[in-house]
Structures are given as structure tokens and as C-alpha cells.
Backbone:
């Protein structure tokens, strides 16, 4: 998934004021991992609609921010996924 992260950083770090967006295509978008990383780093608001039959492919159009050190990738932080892990402790008595 480093390819999705790298594409997001490179797309946003092109020259500021550039009017040419970066087009990022994600293959296997129907898989949970690709969808989660794309939603987090490439942002659903930048996703373009593709014709039917292209469920495995996603197209994102990213405009430059001129900043390679982007801390928040998406305007809407609700698109981020959080994973919580729970641990259970058991005690045994002898």
C-alpha cells in the first residue's frame, strides 16, 4: 500500500500553482485494503466516476497543494478508518 501513499504525496507536492492535476489509478479497488488506503490518502472527494464494468479500477484526480509534508490528506477527516484492538486478560487460579 506504499504505492498509494507515495502517489498521494507526489501528486500533492508538484509545483504550487500548477494547473495540471495528477491522475492516479488504483487497480483492485474492490479489495478492502486498496479501498481503505485510497480513501485515506487519495480521498473519496477526488474520485472520478468510471463507466460500469470497471469496479476493480478507481480514478482519482488530485490537484497540487505544493506541500510535500501534508499532514491531513483529505478535507473530510471522516473518511479515515480507525482500527481498535481489544485484548482480554484471563486469570487462572491453581
Residues:
Amino acid at each position: 500500500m506504499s504505492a498509494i501513499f507515495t502517489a498521494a504525496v507526489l501528486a500533492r507536492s508538484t509545483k504550487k500553482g500548477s494547473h495540471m492535476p495528477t491522475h492516479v489509478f488504483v487497480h483492485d479497488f474492490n479489495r478492502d485494503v486498496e479501498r481503505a488506503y485510497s480513501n485515506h490518502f487519495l480521498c473519496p472527494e477526488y474520485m472520478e466516476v468510471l463507466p460500469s464494468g470497471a469496479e476493480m479500477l478507481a480514478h482519482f484526480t488530485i490537484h497540487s497543494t505544493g506541500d510535500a509534508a501534508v499532514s491531513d490528506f483529505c478535507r473530510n477527516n471522516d473518511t479515515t478508518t480507525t482500527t481498535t484492538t481489544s485484548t482480554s486478560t484471563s486469570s487462572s487460579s491453581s
